[in-house]
Amino acid sequence: MNEEHGRIFREAWIAGVKAHYPGEPKPGYISPWEDTPEWEREAASAVYGQVTDFLTVSGGSASRLTREQKGRFVSLCWIAQIYQHIPDPKPSYVTDWSEQPEWQRETNCEVFEAIERQA
Question: What domain of life does the UniProt record list for this protein's source (predicted)?
Fold first, then answer.
């Protein structure tokens, strides 16, 4: 696990939640890295790596994706991590992009863009 990469993911997630969540977000949505469960830290680091790998193998062309496409990629990578770490996840943990609330979709877009800026 690359902790620095996981932190970048987490900070982007928290910033997105604070910007887009309607009302007061659940504490777990915005808890700092130190208070994030180990599996979530590992998942954040893994998704960061998947985004940077995607940018690399596309020769940088993935940066031309639409904002929504970028968010969809993060969402799918995260769902795969949920399945890896949670044997029987709640359906709400693995909701498809089209069924996710607007705040979550916007946050996933911002996560991709934050990773892209770092890469």
Answer: Bacteria
Separation CA 49–CA 47 (nearest Å): 5
For Cα atoms 20, 12, 5, give the angle at the middle one, nearest 5 degrees: 160
Q: What is the spatial distance between Cα 114 and Cα 39, in angstroms, rounded to a whole number? A: 21
Give the residue carrying structure tokens 């863009």: 113
Number of residues in the chain = 119
Q: Which domain holds residue 102?
A: 3-118
Helices 3-20 & 102-118, crossing angle to 10 degrees? 140
32-76 pLDDT, tens per residue? Answer: 999 999 999 999 999 999 999 999 999 989 999 999 999 999 999
How many domains, in total, are found in the chain?
Answer: 1
Query: Distance between CA 78 and CA 111 in Å, rounded?
Result: 11
